[in-house]
Amino acid sequence: MHEMIDQRGWIKGTVDFHLHQVCAFYYRDLEDTIQYLLRQRAYAEHLVFEPIQELDNEGNRVYKDMHTGDW
User: Fold this and answer.
1) What is the rounded distance in angstroms from the CA atom of residue 68 to the CA atom of residue 53?
2) Is 71 helix (H, G, I), strand (E, B) or coil?
3) 24-35: pLDDT as tens digits
4) Is this model's pTM higher than 0.90 or not?
5) Number of Cβ within a 10 Å radius of residue 28
6) What is the DSSP code string of 17-58?
7) How far, in Å, CA of 10 to CA of 15, rounded?
8) What is the pLDDT, as a whole number, of residue 15?
9) At a CB cut-off of 8 Å and minimum separation 6, what does 67 contact?
10) Which residues pair with 48 in a beta bridge?
11) How far apart are CA 18 and CA 34, in angstroms?
12) What is the per-residue pLDDT for 12?
């Protein structure tokens, strides 16, 4: 299945916590994951690459998503 989506599999790492030694965690390569998500057509109309200002009906600025803030 990994070859079908052109993404490497999960990578296993370990970390030592004060109360729990050798705790395992799994992750994927961040760059591969971002490239995979940006290729998805289902997300194309929802991607935002620049900040926007949204206003309510009374003309007041609305902050509801990260891209509606001041960058």
Assistant:
1) 5
2) coil
3) 999 988 888 888
4) no
5) 13
6) -SSSSSEEEEE--HHHHHHHHHH-GGGGGG---S---EE-TT
7) 16
8) 92
9) 48, 50, 51, 52
10) none
11) 32
12) 92
